[in-house]
Amino acid sequence: MWEYAPAPESRDIANLKPNYRMFVDGKFVEGSGEPLKTINPATEEVLAEVSTASASDVDTAVKAARRAYDRVWSKMPGSERAKYIYRIARQIQERARELAVLESLDNGKPIKESRDVDVPTAAAHFFYHAGWADKLGYAGYGPDPKPLGVAGQVIPWNFPLLMAAWKIAPALACGNTVVLKPAETTPLTALVLAEIIQQCDLPPGVVNIIPGAGDVGAAITEHGDVNKVAFTGSTEVGKIIQGKLAGTGKKLTLELGGKAANVVFDDAPLDQAVEGIVNGIFFNQGHVCCAGSRLLVQESIADELLAKLQTRINTLRVGDPLDKNTDVGAINSREQLVKIKELTESGEAEGAQRWTSSCPLPDKGFFFAPTVFSNVSQAMRIAREEIFGPVLSVLTFRTPEEAVAKANNTPYGLSAGVWTEKGSRILWMAQRMRAGVVWSNTFNRFDPAAPFGGYQESGFGREGGRTGLEAYLDV
Amino acid sequence: MSDRVTVAKTYKLYIGGAFPRSESGRSYPVSDSKGGFLANAAQGSRKDARDAVTAARKAFGSWSGATAYNRGQVLYRVAEVLEGRREQFITEVAQSEGVQLKKAQSVVDAAIDRWVWYAGWTDKIAAVLGSSNPVAGPYFSFSTPEPTGVVAVLAPQQSSLLGLVSVIAPVIASGNTCVVITSQDRPLPAITLSEVLATSDVPGGVVNIITGRTAEIAPWLASHADVNALDLTGSPESLRADLERSAAGTVKRVLRNKVNEDFTVTPDLSRIRAYLETKTVWHPTGV
Questions:
Q1: For the segment A398-425, what is each residue's pLDDT rounded down to a tens digit?
Q2: Domain total in chain A
Q3: ipTM of model over 0.90
Q4: Are B281 and A247 within 8 A, CB to CB?
Q5: What is the least distance, in Å, from the CA of B279 to any CA of chain A?
Q6: Nearest-angstrom CA–CA distance, A464 and A422
Q7: Where does the Aldehyde dehydrogenase domain start and stop, copy by copy (chain A) (predicted)?
Q8: Domain co-membership, A190 together with A284
Q9: Residue ranges making up the domain that contains A306
Q10: How far apart are CA B80 and CA B167, in angstroms?
Q11: Active-site residue numbers of A?
């Protein structure tokens, strides 16, 4: 084993402030909700106090967005909107290191992920969508597709800045204005994004960012003057939102939970597959809706693959998110840690065989060692429910037909993986797996040019690509 | 004038390629626009709706897996067979909708042409709605539209043939299968259309047609866990929000069409898009 010297990124780079305020109508203002304290999940220390919105603040924000839509943004030529959005992309790139450190502090994810994935992909989303703003007539929705109006957007805590980018960039490009609520436990990078938006001189009210808990999210999505709702989060909450919006005529897109099958055939390049499996479930501590949480391995290679996998997982370094050598950071909240523990205990109780990495865990903070369950059957909770943590359930199959049947045996359908050297089999599997994204001989790849979103109870609508524009156009 | 007694048709349901009566044993009288008796139609039940969903699910694998060229030919075949029974449909539409024969002719002609229009789309949808994605890395990434699955369709209440065709054809063109609740008061052209479908190479179960009370059957389909999408076109206004709420329980795709949709104009792609999923596939490039 290698010995690693600590290689921490300096937290000073985050420019952490003691207080953050909400961003409404172009200004940072105090919210009249109860302020929240956001903590560093790796240390449990308070990072900052953040003001939150009350119902009347939500109304103020929606009114600001409506004014900005009516008076400015919907009338502005797409070519001008584009330049504002390009500015945002550039500023994110310029402040990339600061945003990455802040993200890792607030979320708990390893700095190498926030630095190499979250922040650059967020910038890429703005850059990509900026280019669409004056080319919407070429997107296949008619010569002059119109925006919807005010978009109410509620995002999760697993990719705080990136999800804000996924939501705001296409909304603005299509000519909508935005009221966005970041997650309760991870509001900071969205509020720095607000600062960037202010510095980019966007007209006041075009983007409003108001922190708060679920009640604020409900107030936004149910507000009578919101035309479009976009939600990323749990299937449970997604169903509630869809139900509440019934009969309102609001356009809705949902990006919800998943329980992705990652299918490994006996001819797969095993070392590559092991890397892909590890990336699939331990990337971002498994706090990924499209995580490859169900490993389906062909029976003939199951023992060999499992042994290789355990050897590899034992080398994963769990700990300080700011350390550049850290592979698995902190679980985002105590609440989530409790949920992961509860589900893993159910796995043991239901008879699955548990293996846990021998890695040392920090004394403080919320951490969970990478865990693999074998002898998992399809009826077990750990094979059906989204754990949203670094826990892999291993099932086996004999034939490709069985692999497809097991992969599709879930109400979800967000993503899937397939590992085999045989090209025709990849395409055969990709056709049959009912999932919005199929990664073959790779996993967890994201790009603003590639549509992302789920089948069935993983939600509807797509984000990214030409397809993703539909969510923000009146078509 | 012949004094021969004509053979009246018994109107039944169309489920899984067969023509059963409602399992409930119920029927209801259907009248023309002036209140004269036309026929009895089967009054479909919850059980009929569930049988229809089972049939639609069973048919989904092979219909969605058929080549787009094949589906195109099947839809075109429907137009051919419909054309051959044009006179029958003109009479039925005139009776059901209370319109003059000339108007009924134009409605039937438009319905035939609608099948031709959608037949031509089957093998172009992926080219128009799919994409090759220029991602920033050594990967080939492409996106293709795929059918959502089983679609529950509440057919328009007024337009008994053209409206019906306009809501069914876009569903099945892309490979979905469907359960259709017909116009409650004008169900007869739908049952005659099912005779056309049954003789046009449309595999059994791809289209299932239920006559009866929309408000009675629709809630079962809206909440059914094996239905993937819901078209509210023919829903009573008072029921729409409730059906949408039920549909949320399994995150169904819900088509809320524009009020008073004009089925006489050539459609756009929106009804096809409503029942499609986009699947994005990635693979590394390299040697």
A1: 999 999 999 999 999 999 999 999 999 9
A2: 2
A3: yes
A4: no
A5: 4
A6: 29
A7: 28-474
A8: no
A9: 261-440
A10: 19
A11: 255
